[in-house]
Design a protein that fits this description.
mainly alpha; 6 helices; single chain; Lysozyme; two-stranded antiparallel sheet
Length: about 170
């Protein structure tokens, strides 16, 4: 590996060494007076302290609380069974079809939840709102957990020929 010395450094070193030698001689003031006009000042690069980078603080995500559904009335299995007869008759749907789908989807449990699906018939929010608006009822998604409201909505959807909403639980 070859080292190259910058020309400016050589000039400065030779000049400084030469001046030291001259100042030790008796005729130095004369020689210095002759050389001084030809000397040029070459600025040297002085390293500066570079500030260290400060670490970036990562923002922590704020914890968004999971919304809890509004409490819904509790119904016995006999009452839920009665809703199948009531809404089955109202919307001309076989009550046994309603029972079969509710049992298949939620185990006949109105509080059942699976990912985005909820209630006896495991409606997702979007589907729930669509059918609730069609029958002119409150589209609040928390009502999916109300067995009576879910039974009415499912009976209405089935009366429109929408058994496709429950592809894994067809009777």
């Amino acid at each position: 590996m070859t080292w190259r010395t910058p020309a400016a450094a050589v000039v400065v070193i030779v000049t400084v060494v030469g001046l030291r030698e001259l100042t030790n001689k008796p005729h130095a003031p004369q020689v210095l007076a002759e050389i001084a006009p030809t000397l040029t000042v070459i600025p040297t690069i002085i390293p500066t302290n570079t500030p260290l980078p400060t670490p970036t603080i990562k923002p922590k995500p704020t914890v968004k609380p999971t919304p809890t559904p509004k409490p819904q009335p509790k119904f016995t299995s006999e009452q839920i069974y009665g809703f199948t007869d009531r809404f089955g008759g109202q919307y001309a749907v076989d009550p046994n079809v309603l029972r079969h789908i509710a049992l298949c989807e939620s185990g006949f449990r109105p509080e059942a939840k699976n990912y985005i699906y909820a209630g006896l018939f495991q409606f997702d929010t979007r589907t729930w709102k669509i059918y609730r608006n069609k029958i002119g009822e409150d589209p609040d998604p928390d009502l999916r957990y109300n067995a009576e409201e879910a039974m009415q909505t499912a009976a209405y959807a089935i009366s429109l020929g929408q058994l496709r909403l429950w592809p894994n639980c067809k009777p």
